[in-house]
Design goal:
Layout: E1 2-8, E2 11-16, E3 26-35, H1 38-44, E4 61-68, E5 80-83, E6 86-87, H2 93-96, E7 107-108, E8 120-124, E9 128-130, H3 137-140, H4 143-156, E10 163-167, H5 171-182, E11 186-191, H6 194-202, E12 206-209, H7 215-222, E13 228-233, H8 238-247, E14 248-256, H9 268-273, E15 277-280, H10 286-298, E16 307-311, H11 316-324, E17 331-335
Parallel strand pairs: 10-11, 10-13, 11-12, 13-14, 14-15, 16-17
Antiparallel strand pairs: 1-2, 3-4, 3-8, 3-17, 4-5, 5-9, 6-7
């Protein structure tokens, strides 16, 4: 089978590998789609060297079909599934408290262990979610990032009529905006990429180009001077982390979603002075994953326009470079049903 191997910053290659053998409790999957996400891009640029080392197979936003063995943990061959790619130890204090998604020894498939960018993948059966026939493969590959957004918005405890500012208009930022609006909030999205701004505006959101305007003035105008009740920082940029406190209302909630690659300064005086709450978020719970599946299956969240480009597996490097280029792309998918002829 073909697998995509990360060789170091800026380089992945396609290599031949044996089809994985399934250990006890594992299921063999045949991959159909894999989404390129911000974490993949961070790794591709060399941003997670202690976890994703050369030789790793990346990818965790995916959809697949069960390839075997027969009746593994109740899953029959041919069943379409997505993988919840977190593996908890089950023994640490976080796990014993019921917070397995922030396990002290959490292993993330596609980062700490091999992921989905291979034709066949062996994973623990307890990480699988069956998906209904009403969800297309393209949209099923977006279940994992939507689960992130579900978790983030749930922890923000948004109330109808509140104002929400989302900093960062990538796929997860856009999903957060959609879910916040569904919760009854007035939402404004801040971004500097012109295509993402246009896309968000087409979804009906007020938007602001953070590279051209004073975001604090924009938020003051949007909220009649009060500031945003909730600020989601989704971009992972140091500047956006510093901006969070300036945008929030008195007793506002700051939700840190984006991965900060290094230590970043924030205005702690504003957190003290206006009694702001700062909440970090990581991954999702199983219930968040199930809710993401329900939202897509029911049509309550329409992600059809998110898919910008599809690439065959042999063009993973091109897909990664395109996503980093600032080109007009919301989500690039690796489509394993496309020809892999080089």
């Amino acid at each position: 089978m073909k697998a995509t191997i990360y060789r170091g910053p800026g380089c992945v290659e396609i290599a031949e590998k044996p089809i994985p053998q399934t250990a006890s409790g594992e299921v063999l999957l045949q991959i159909r789609r894999v989404g390129i996400c911000g974490t993949d891009l961070l790794i591709f640029q060399g941003g997670m060297p202690e976890r994703a080392k050369p030789g790793r197979i990346l990818g965790h936003e995916m959809v697949a079909v069960i390839a075997g063995p027969e009746n593994s943990a109740g899953f029959q061959p041919g069943t379409r599934v997505v993988v919840e790619p977190t593996v908890a130890c089950g023994h640490c204090q976080a796990c014993r408290s019921g917070f397995t998604h922030v396990c002290e020894n959490l292993r993330f498939l596609g980062i700490d262990a091999d992921g989905a960018l291979q034709e066949f993948w062996s994973v623990p059966a307890d990480r699988l979610h069956a998906i209904p026939a009403t969800i297309q493969d393209d949209h099923a590959a977006l279940i994992e990032p939507l689960a992130v957004a579900v978790h983030d918005v749930r922890l923000a405890a948004i109330q109808p009529g509140e104002t929400v500012a989302v900093i960062g208009g990538g796929p997860i930022g856009l999903m957060i905006a959609l879910l916040a609006r569904r919760a009854g909030a007035r939402v404004i999205l801040l971004e500097m990429n012109a295509h993402r701004l246009t896309f968000a505006h087409g979804l009906g959101f007020q938007v602001g180009d953070v590279s051209l305007i004073d975001s604090r003035e924009l938020i003051r105008d949007f909220t009649q001077g009060a500031g945003a009740n909730v600020v989601f920082e989704v971009s992972g940029s140091a500047g956006a982390a510093r901006l969070m406190t300036a945008l929030a209302a008195v007793r506002g909630r700051l939700i840190a979603v984006g991965i900060q690659g290094r230590e970043t300064s924030i205005d702690l005086f504003q957190i003290f002075y206006r009694e702001l709450s700062l909440h970090g978020v990581r991954a999702y719970t199983r219930e968040d994953f199930q809710e993401a599946i329900r939202l897509i299956a029911s049509g309550e969240i329409d992600l059809a326009g998110f898919i910008s480009r599809r690439f065959p597996m042999v063009e993973v490097q091109s897909a990664l470079k395109l996503a980093l280029s600032g080109a007009p792309v919301i989500k690039a998918l690796i489509d394993f049903t496309l020809s892999n002829e080089t």
